[in-house]
Amino acid sequence: MSSATGVSLKEQERAARKAEKARQKRVAADEKAERKRSEKAGFANVNNPRRSKLLTFLCAIFAVYCLFPFVYLAVNATKTQADFTSTFGLGFGRSFALWDNIVTVFTYQDGIFARWLINTLFYVIVGAGGATLLAIMGGYALAKFRFPGRNAVFVVIIGAISVPGIALAVPQFLLFAKLGLTNTPWAMIIPSLISPFGLYLMWIFSEQAVPQELLEAARVDGASEFRTFWQISLPLLAPGIVTTALFTIVATWNNYFLPLIMLKDADWYPLTIGLNQWKDQASTAGGQAIQNLVITGSLITIIPLVIAFLCLQKYWQSGLAAGAVKE
């Protein structure tokens, strides 16, 4: 009896293994057929992911296009001035002079590069920080409060976004000249405080990210509007805040035309104007070519932006799918 039971169990195990192998073969066949259909369609199937060769190739080209300037800066920042003019642009020079170039950048012309870097950080912290704060408060108020003229404000914001900033540079210069604010830090800070796109972005994001029921519950519990905004709404707006901050930081950091017409004193230059002045130095009478310092300074200039993106991207990505799934 026991031997018969043992034989029966072994047969059941063999049958189970055979059925499992047959199931795996069916699954493999289905996956192969699905991959063929995906290849013909040119896109990946959600249930059976597979990269499209065409899209992968296009993304690779785009990645090379985006990374090429950074690679060029990183390679040429290691060259001396002689190597920069006598060697291939994407090849290293005869000597590795990166550290020497960095030291020279911060000591050339009595260390004015450090002053330009401090000026840029000051303009970003005050100007971009203030623009982000004003966009947060203005966008939240426009999204959560109803008042006469709200639609008119929306039209004005859309119109302001449509107007390129360079078109406003000359009127801004004439206005600041009348006020006696040209060639001062205020000529950089005050225009940077206004970010129509940031205001519009926070308006739309606040409309979706902060439930009206949550605000009503806070008001019923006796919380003031100020406390409701800072303790309840602000944490929910973190992804939108980070996105707005990144836009305003990059816009202020890379601003070129506004300081070009507003500032004449080199001590107030941001990095964009200062490095351009170094670049044009060789074309002046008796000027010395210092392209290796310009390249090294440009590499140093982008490092804070890279750090900012790396530090803030987790807050940005956390809100990309907010509201995409209905519970």
Automatic annotation (TrEMBL):
Subcellular location: Cell membrane
Protein name: ABC-type sugar transport system, permease component
Keyword Membrane attached: yes
Membrane association type: Multi-pass membrane protein
Pfam families (alphabetical): BPD_transp_1
Domain of life: Bacteria
Transmembrane segments: 54-75, 121-143, 152-174, 186-205, 234-253, 289-312
Biological process terms in GO annotation: transmembrane transport
Domain ABC transmembrane type-1: 117-311
